[in-house]
């Protein structure tokens, strides 16, 4: 009890942060979250009033001191439920009149430039349906793909446009799902496209967040106009400004396969690098004897950097932690990493409760908590006797602690685990601060009209060599995993047991529980089901050509059948034939097939090709005109042939049983 009291006393924000997170979680399961939260707050107040009014004996009050954390936790759980319910994301009615060809008015929250056009995140205010149905919204987000439309919108613009609203779905042409869940964690459930439409800007709302994103967009344009190589520009924009939309999927995959995808997220590590650079630049302040002013000034400038980079949750979280650590130094108090982490968590969840379900937030919290809980106990060296060796080993054990804490969450969301994470991190992490410093120097000099060619050469060559190394070390070193929520629970149960044993109380049963839960996790992993076997394929519904996606390990390869020809493909023991041409009379059968795809180039009927190829299933490609497709389907019913329309019935998934 004494150890627990000591820990709670030194980490005063632990109970509020954990309780608020619990309240947000419970609110998703409760249909009356506001009422439940209000009742919990009233109960907590009654408990507190009873305590101060009826327990006047000092000895009894001291014995019941731990119960103060109980009523405090109940109050914060209720507060978390109220916060989550007040900020709950709204949904659109399922009726077609409020989704088809509707007029939408809202504020642009974010703008991303992609190769296929701008993608806007719009906070919707009003939707007017075709029959005059009008709905107002307070917390509804909509993803708008502009395509060929000219948006010319920036963050903070109030826009009006017409579109059809659809639910966000996982790509039906891929085995790898998750996009829908990722967007849902950000509160975005709907999407619309404006290929030939127009967005009208009717007003501009200059909020602080809109100004922040506008500054970031201008900085991105400035970097794009430098003489650096295009790939280097995109990497610098990602690392310095946190906008990963500039990186192509191949580059992101290279970093992910090597286990260093966290480098691409502007988070605590990057803010630590920027903070170190700021402290170095402010070193002359020490000559005035005001070293505390140097620390506080660096923290203030770090908040300014966070503002111009868009105020991402991971950046805000890092700045809050730095601010608490800086305040502890100025007040000459012992720093508590966990208290800073809980403070950041409490502030972020208070502002945006839905962040609790964001994968990036979860991974950042777990990595920092794991390093704080385990890294000091894993380093066998003495800081005073061998300071340099201690720092080198600290880097290794911090990487191991963060990976051990976060791998299960990463595997749960992304279904993969990189085996090369240790050498990749050991090489890249020490180099990254120098690369960031060079990039900042180059951009500052470019801003005042001076360009140093050697800096440009170093930045371009450095990224090129890094990319080659990560491609080499990450190639084929990933394993596919299928982690359930029970595996996540067992693993973190084991980690919590170890953390309590190492940091709070050396009680051996905690150590035994940790070992048992960890063993259950590792033993259960090979028995997890649900992965798609290699060789499984999807006949896609792409309009332009007949394309078949085949699962190959952790990736999918696309086979495109010959356009305007008769082509065949064999996947495992399944044969596929695509007919995209006119077949001659008395055509000799090449043999039976499992799947026959009729494309737009074929001008005959179903009976003719069915007699030639005798397929188990006929697939009608979207390149076939709708009128002709209807005739094929009717003919298939008459002949008793199994026909599948890719346009009507969606892409065809074939799972290979092995």
Provide keyphrases for this structure:
single chain; 658 residues; alpha+beta; seven-stranded mixed beta sheet; five-stranded mixed beta sheet; 22 helices
Q: Which class best fits the helix and strand makeup?
A: alpha+beta
Helical proportion, percent range: 40-55%
Total beta-strand segments: 18
Q: In order across it, which strands form the biggest sheet?
A: 5-6-3-2-1-4-7
Q: Outline the biggest β-sheet.
A: 7 strands, mixed
Number of helices: 22
Contiguous low-pLDDT stretches (5 residues minimum) are: none
Q: Nearest-angstrom radius of gyration?
A: 29 Å
The percent range for strand residues is 15-25%
Give the overall average pLDDT. Answer: 81
Name the overall outline.
Answer: globular
Terminus-to-terminus distance: 55 Å
Quick summary of this structure?
The chain has 22 helices and 18 strands. Helix content is 52%, strand content 16%.
Q: What features would you describe in this structure?
A:
Helices cover 52% and strands 16% of the residues. With 658 residues, the protein is α+β, with helices and mostly antiparallel strands. The protein has a seven-stranded mixed β-sheet with strand order 5-6-3-2-1-4-7. A hairpin with a 2-residue loop joins strand 1 and strand 2. Helix 3 packs antiparallel against helix 5, helix 12 crosses helix 13 (337-351) and helix 14 runs antiparallel to helix 15. The protein starts with a helix and ends with a strand. 32% of the residues are buried. The model has no long low-confidence stretch (mean pLDDT 81).
What is the topology?
Layout lengths: L1 H9 L3 H16 L3 H22 L3 H6 L3 H20 L15 E13 L2 E12 L5 E12 L11 E7 L2 E2 L11 H7 L2 E6 L6 E5 L3 H17 L5 H12 L7 H9 L10 H14 L9 H18 L4 H18 L6 H15 L7 H20 L8 H28 L1 E3 L2 H27 L5 H22 L3 E3 L4 H19 L4 H17 L12 E3 L7 E6 L2 E6 L5 E6 L2 E6 L15 E4 L7 H8 L3 E4 L5 H14 L3 E3 H4 L2 E3 L4
Parallel strand pairs: 3-6, 14-15, 15-16, 16-17
Antiparallel strand pairs: 1-2, 1-4, 2-3, 4-7, 5-6, 8-9, 10-11, 10-18, 11-12, 13-14
